[in-house]
């Protein structure tokens, strides 16, 4: 199994750390992993993205032009990556602030209003974990147990008391995600 | 597996290529790192400072005032037989060229890491491979060469840091680790090398009898300099350096072949573009095109012989680089016109995608 994922949004939305947790989860279940961030000027304000690959085999290119799954958290990301989802693949978007919406018919489109939920429920800091929960509901590529192990590994020890909150956020995301087509 | 082996079994970690270099430097007994921050390699210095090796192994970590200062600090430390290194990205490495030439002239070992970004000038902070000529053909003045290791994974960032020190001391010549922004910034699985203690004073005296450690009774003073005003003597030094480079060519060629056995078309690429090209080879194979990848690991000495050995059975070579075409010249020299050699490259920080490479292979060679 190989899953090629792009996660894209505004800098500060937790895009890179969501990718990191996903990569650690893959590591925990013994997979090959690659995490390739956009480290360019876009990381300093504009749109940030990260390519995460989880695979049972050696990963060749960390840079891709088509993805099994795209998670897009802002309008420019949708415009950039909707066309790059492989036919039959998955697009997950948070529609907050969108004026144009996904149009493709040959991919599975899911909406998760995690940003709205997070602001309404004082959960902004775990917003990316809500989205990760949504992803795992529709693409169960890693076991939740391994996500929690990965989270423990990637978070400094002083934040370990927040593990419960993160697990809760994953569960919320699983309920929040809705299929659109 | 015995119990002691189990105890020493290193855990698999996830880290950036830059971080792996920092960990590997401490673990291989490096005495000093001198560097100045520049994207996309600042994590090397940052990680070293976080790890505080001066409290454990006694390794010095110093942010110098400039890249010029960094390389000259490496020169100074190496003159005392210490394992010293610096790292930078393209514009900073340009500033180091004088120091590198002086190190070669003074026959000093040391490790320089270049995590390349797009140029010329200050250019961009995105990845590039356009410092190939500078590194392999000699960016500084005079007749010199450096063994150049081109990592293509985070694991190799760690492994080649250790190897670079071994080779630098074996040949009393600086060694370059030539990476790019992608390999520096991406995270992958890595198993870190085992801990080796730093050399003791006695070990330094034994391993580097040329070092300036203070004159012993009944010994001649050691002098470290790249200055020799007598031309006959200077030519002798040059001949000694050249014979060393011939030794490197004989002993140190390294490369990886992927699906080359039955290949009709060979892609030649190093570092990140080798990873991208490997995917292109997979895509080509899925379409029934017999493609293979030759990944040079040492850029000097160059794996020319293996390339020449393909020429009797392949239809052509595509060289892929993040540059306007630099390594392609060495590919052409290697095959002496026996097969067509085509080039595909992107510049200025653009990374070619696997599909672009596949399309280039089809357009330029298969048609």
Hey, which two chains have the biggest interface? A-B, 23 and 28 residues
Spell the H/E element sequence of chain A.
EHEEEHEEHHHHE
Topology, number of strands of chain B: 14
H/E series of chain B: HEHEHEHEHHEHEHEHEHHEEHEEHEHEH
Report the CATH topology name of the largest domain in chain B. Answer: Rossmann fold
CATH H level, superfamily name of chain A:
Pyruvate-ferredoxin oxidoreductase, PFOR, domain III
Determine the oligomeric state from the structure.
heterodimer
Radius of gyration of chain A (CA) equals: 15 Å
Q: CATH topology of chain A, what is it called?
A: Pyruvate-ferredoxin Oxidoreductase, domain 3
Q: How many separate helices of chain B?
A: 15
Order of strands side by side in the largest beta sheet of chain A? 2-3-1-4-5-6-7
Number of domains of chain B: 2
**How would you sum up the global shape of chain B?**
globular
The CATH architecture designation of the largest domain in chain B is 3-Layer(aba) Sandwich
Description:
The complex is a heterodimer of chains A (about 180) and B (about 375). Chain A starts with a strand and ends with a strand. Chain A has helices at about 15-30, 75-80, 115-120, 125-140, 145-155, 165-175, and strands at about 1-10, 30-35, 45-55, 65-70, 85-95, 110, 180. The model of chain A has no long low-confidence stretch (mean pLDDT about 95). Chain A is globular. Chain A has a seven-stranded mixed sheet, with helices on both faces. Chain A has one domain: Pyruvate-ferredoxin oxidoreductase, PFOR, domain III (Pyruvate-ferredoxin Oxidoreductase, domain 3, 3-Layer(aba) Sandwich). Chain A is built from six helices and seven strands, in the order E-H-E-E-E-H-E-E-H-H-H-H-E. By secondary structure, chain A is of the alpha/beta class. Helices cover about 35% and strands about 25% of the residues of chain A. With about 375 residues, chain B is of the alpha/beta class. Chain B contains 15 helices and 14 strands. Chain B has helices at about 5-10, 15-25, 40-50, 65-80, 90-95, 95-105, 130-135, 155-170, 180-185, 200-205, 230-250, 270-285, 305-310, 325-335, 355-365; strands at about 15, 30-35, 60-65, 85-90, 110-115, 145-150, 175-180, 185-190, 255-260, 265-270, 290-295, 300, 315-320, 340-345. In chain B, the strands form three sheets. Chain B has a seven-stranded mixed sheet with strand order 3-2-4-5-7-6-12, with helices on both faces. In chain B, helix 12 packs across helix 15 (about 355-365) and helix 13 packs across helix 14. The N and C termini of chain B lie far apart (about 55 Å). In chain B, about 55% of the residues are buried. Mean pLDDT of chain B is about 95; it is low at about 1-5. At the A-B interface, helix 1 and strand 2 of A face helix 9, strand 8, helix 12 and helix 15 of B. Strand 2 of chain A pairs antiparallel with strand 8 (about 185-190) of chain B.
